[in-house]
Design a protein that fits this description.
single chain, alpha/beta, 8-stranded mixed sheet, elongated, binds adenosine-5'-triphosphate, ATP-binding
Length: 437
């Protein structure tokens, strides 16, 4: 966390002390319903032209997410595209209505606020988006763009506002003389600085940054991130910082949350998360960071398989269908080596990643060192017969039902606290491997 700000420009009497909880997100859930609205009204070509309604799908974009953010800290949220990062950000700021769960800001439940109280909280919570170009009106000069939120919230008189704009332009690293320039006259990095000035114009406490440097050249990213850090110290800001790029997250965050398919799967201090990751998904993400020296060999490409649909996510742990550490079902007696082979065979059948000509070849490829006995062996035998008879679908279903679906990873949703090795803050990891038994 950055040190106590040298100067606070906040005018509030309800200020939260540095290091105390500013934002609390509790069991936040956001589902989108698609396909069942007006757009799904179709004309039935065979039935007299009356519109009929198709079934609707429920996209589980964010599910049961909880965390606190302390005043003055940066909480980074990382995850692959589509895992729900933007939806989480927008729901926290009430740009989407939550399906369930609560958001507390300065101890107040945002759901309970209306009118002036809600307006005030909205002013205190600002957002910066990924694309600095499209979030700036090309017909407006930069001065009025930065001034506009002050007008909207009716704060400061007109002279104060334009002085404040010039001051803010300087603070974000731009020339105050650029007041009369248009957005297209700036580079991408400069435009993101204009966005920062605009967000700061209304004295926020909390800024949600949704991929703010992803559209920028790598060489510019660090400069903008360093400016954001400096502004954080100067104005006592708290950031929720969303990115898919782990190096960006590592650079800016005090704590990091990892999202997968709408859920938070791990949350820990920055160093703890990067040095002692406890969720197989986090480990896979960290291992997929490109190695600068191509001669250094890592365990690369471990994130196999597609991300399942958020409309019908897997039961239990959502990462289990891709997890390299899926836990063996305790219904069978299997050695570790046997389970590793069964799991590899099951995944390969599911994804049809091999061709076979006969049983001996298949056994050599998957079960050279260990073949399961007893019931697990019978199931594997049947699956092999199915594959050899070109009945892949039957084999895949059999293996899924008898092995994958019997694992604790499929049967129970995981949620565990882990003893941190770095620092003393909470380390949360939603993986059954962390169950202490
Ligand atoms: N308005 C919407 N209506 C229906 N589905 C939506 C809507 N907004 C997002 N989604 C779906 O919710 C899921 C999460 O999307 P979201 O944009 O939050 O992910 P993300 O992690 O921010 O991805 P990216 O980094 O690509 O922006 C996706 O499956 C997405 O298609």
């Amino acid at each position: 966390m950055s040190s106590e700000p040298a100067r606070s420009i906040s005018d509030d009497d309800d200020d939260i002390a540095f290091g105390e909880t500013l934002v609390s997100v509790e069991n936040l859930t956001k589902h989108f319903t698609t396909g069942g609205g007006l757009l799904s009204l179709r004309y039935d070509a065979t039935g007299g032209g009356f519109p009929f309604r198709t079934h609707s799908d429920r996209v589980r974009a964010v599910e049961n997410v909880s965390f606190d953010i302390k005043k003055g800290e940066t909480l980074g949220i990382v995850g692959e595209s589509g895992c729900g990062k933007s939806t989480l950000a927008r729901t926290i700021l009430k740009l989407h209505a939550p399906t369930d769960g609560d958001i507390y800001f300065k101890g107040e439940n945002l759901a309970d606020l209306t009118g002036e109280a809600l307006r005030k909280r909205r002013r205190e919570m600002q957002m910066i988006f990924q694309d600095p170009q499209s979030s700036l009106d090309p017909r407006m000069k930069v001065g009025p763009i930065v001034e506009e939120p002050m007008k909207a919230h009716d704060i400061y008189d007109p002279d104060e506002r334009s002085d404040r704009v010039r001051d803010l332009l300087e603070k974000v690293g731009l020339d105050p003389q650029h007041y009369n320039r248009y957005p297209h006259e700036f580079s991408g990095g400069q435009r993101q600085r204009v966005n920062l000035a605009r967000a700061l114009a209304v004295n926020p406490d909390f800024i949600v940054c949704d991929e703010p440097v992803s559209a920028l050249d790598v060489s510019i990213q660090a400069q903008v991130l360093n400016t954001m850090k400096r502004l954080q110290r100067e104005f006592g800001l708290t950031y929720l910082f969303i990115a898919h790029d782990l190096s960006v997250i590592r650079h800016i965050s005090d704590r990091v949350g990892v999202m997968y398919l709408g859920q938070l799967v791990e949350l820990a201090d920055r160093d703890e998360l990067f040095e002692n990751p406890q969720h197989p998904y986090t480990r896979s993400l960290l291992e997929s960071i490109p190695v600068p020296d191509p001669r250094v060999e890592g365990r690369r490409g471990v994130l196999e398989g597609d991300v399942p649909s958020p409309i019908n996510p897997p039961s239990g742990c959502r990462f289990r269908t891709r997890c390299p550490d899926l836990i063996a079902p305790d219904t069978y007696e299997m050695s570790d080596a046997e389970w590793v082979n069964v799991r590899r065979f099951m995944r390969a059948v599911d994804r049809r990643t091999f061709t076979v000509t006969d049983r001996a070849e298949l056994l050599a490829e998957f079960f050279d060192d260990a073949y399961p006995d007893g019931e697990a062996g019978d199931v594997t035998d049947r699956a092999i017969d199915n594959v050899l008879a070109d009945e892949w679908e039957t084999a895949a279903t059999l293996l899924q039902e008898r092995f994958a679906e019997q694992s604790i990873c499929a049967l129970r949703e995981p949620s565990y606290e882990v003893e941190p090795e770095h620092g003393t803050n909470q380390h949360f990891a939603a993986c059954h491997l962390n169950a202490d038994d």
